[in-house]
From TrEMBL:
Gene3D superfamilies given in the database record: alpha/beta hydrolase
Keywords linked to the UniProt accession: Hydrolase
Pfam families: Abhydrolase_2
A single GO molecular function term of this UniProt record: hydrolase activity
Name of the protein this chain belongs to: Dienelactone hydrolase family protein
Residue span, Phospholipase/carboxylesterase/thioesterase domain: 23-208
Family listed: Belongs to the AB hydrolase superfamily. AB hydrolase 2 family.
UniProt source species: Paenibacillus spongiae
Length: 219
């Protein structure tokens, strides 16, 4: 199988050929690229496989996974295709690399967060957890997709209190939605605009360490 996406992979330096590793798949924001995501999870690189996925649609100097009709209004056909192709990519990478199927994580920012949350809802406990930074769940996903239970999925949602793209109320609405679906929800807000603060990044690293049961202590 030829994957639909180009990607950047970081394997642990001292890999044991007889074991599998927890794996983080990262999804960047609209107009960005896969290289911008690695820094968020770089402290975990000795214990996790990290796969940064590039959107397949060019946008300016960067990329996107789907196009929009307007802000918060994806072109449905492209969005549906992205969800299907990303799920296929996760299975492709799991077969190709020593990925621990029980500890697969999606981490996304903005457009990547939207897709990470959607994949949690469509894949259910095929994912161990997701990190969604400044995103939301589209209403058509909630109402029209075939959703899987996420009661066993760990969910970290964060949002900038001064987010000028997706207002903070969207973060609270997203957290409330997942609160009703899983007991494993962490929701934090940070004093930022549409971005990821150092405090947010540190909290994400600690959360992933704890949830995956690894202890890197690299701060």
């Amino acid at each position: 199988m030829e994957p639909a996406y180009q990607y950047d992979i970081h394997l642990p330096a001292n890999m044991d050929p007889d074991r599998t590793y927890p794996t983080i798949f990262t999804l960047h924001g609209k107009g960005s690229n896969e290289r911008n995501m690695f820094g968020l999870v770089a402290p975990l690189a000795s214990d996790f496989i990290i796969i940064n996925i590039r959107g397949n649609l060019p946008l300016g100097a960067g990329y996107q996974y789907y196009e929009l009709k307007s802000l918060g209004n994806p072109i449905r056909e492209l969005f549906d295709q992205a969800v299907q192709q990303l799920e296929a990519f996760i299975h492709y990478a799991t077969a190709k690399y020593p990925v621990d199927e029980r500890r697969r994580y999606m981490l996304g920012f903005s457009q990547g967060a939207i897709l990470s949350m959607t994949l949690a809802l469509t894949m259910g406990d095929q994912l161990k957890g997701i990190v969604a930074l400044n995103g939301y769940v589209p209403e058509f996903v909630k109402g029209e997709y075939s959703l899987q239970p996420v009661s066993d999925v760990s969910v970290f949602v964060s949002h900038g209190e001064f987010d000028s793209v997706f207002p903070i109320r969207i973060g609270h609405e997203t957290a409330a939605y997942f609160q009703n679906l899983t007991p494993h929800l962490t929701f934090n807000t940070y004093q930022t605009d549409h971005g990821v603060s150092e405090e947010n990044q540190r909290d994400v690293v600690r959360w992933l360490e704890r949830d995956a049961g690894v202890h890197t202590n690299k701060e």
